[in-house]
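BUG-309 | component: ligand-complex export | severity: low

The export step for nicotinamide-adenine-dinucleotide jobs runs without errors, but we want the raw record kept on the ticket for reference. Input record follows.
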Amino acid sequence: MKILITGGAGFIGSHLSERLLKEGHEVIVVDNYFTGQKSNIHHLMDNHNFELVRHDITMPFFIEVDQIYNLACPASPIHYQYNAIKTVKTSVMGAINMLGLAKRINATILQASTSEVYGDPDIHPQVESYWGHVNPIGIRACYDEGKRCAETLFVNYQRQNDVKIKIIRIFNTYGPRMHPNDGRVVSNFIVQALKGKDITIYGDGMQTRSFQYVDDLLEGMTRMMNSRPDFHGPVNIGNPIEFTIKELAEHVIELTGAKSKIIYQDLPMDDPMQRQPDISLAKKELNWEPKVHLREGLLKTIEYFKTVI
Ligand code: NAD
Ligand code: UDP
């Protein structure tokens, strides 16, 4: 198949490009390099089935493909808050442009939505039927509400125009090729540990996240893209094993053998207190569940960061 990946030079997109090329598909990446890097996909450049286009998805893009993975959007709070208006534009205008394209060429389009649509959830674990608890004017809103609006656009293009849509809600994902300065907790802690610097926990470290290794995400994502035509989601794709941020810091210190000490800093506004996916729907519809345990995934990620810092 011919497959378009928006945001393909980013962390997840570069792994997805690699996987789809290995499966024998033709892959076209569009990216504006806001948070992505050419070095993430440099090793794919010689593959004659791979094409890279510098393009911003807030502008229309025309191509003939069978499938579209819409991943373009900064994902780390530091990056998506850097230019909040642009983040909303990327989510909303990007979705309109890509849905318009999918409609015209009759392609299946998958949206990389997020657990952030649940906001600071008051039900636990989070099921897809939960509508969420999002502050529409907070500092995370540009991302959360942008992604919520993108979901709205997706379901309405399906209802009104029969566009073949798929929505996955991705929970915190980590692995090699995360940007060392992107400010997300796994990359921050590993980089701090490898540099022998203090590990910065925001708040008391009792907030939780459920960390998914990137290979598990790719398996769930590609299964969803190729799932039965009348299954549109949204479906949670995440690892249901929940850790406190303090436990994560302790794991990173142990696995890197670092001498770093933990320091505590202010918790950012609207930082969700807990997050854990209910993955019953993914199990039932996609026969999918994550396989990589946190320690195993952290070790692979630590090895990667040793090569880049
Ligand atoms: P990333 O920042 O590494 O990748 C995003 C890519 O999109 C980058 O290459 C960036 O340059 C590109 N991009 C941003 N704005 C663009 C625009 N206007 N036009 C073209 N390209 C643009 O982030 P990631 O972790 O790889 O996330 C990929 C997708 O998955 C995002 O949509 C994100 O919201 C979603 N997601 C990620 C996680 C996670 O934990 N990593 C969790 C939930 C959802
Ligand atoms: N966090 C932290 N120290 C850091 C970076 C993040 O304690 O150096 C915390 C952050 O406040 C949040 C959690 O780790 O509670 C996950 O943060 P991240 O930015 O990775 O993802 P998100 O909040 O979007 O889930």
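Assignee comment: Attached the raw record above. The domain at 2-174+212-238+278-290 is CATH 3.40.50.720 (Rossmann fold).
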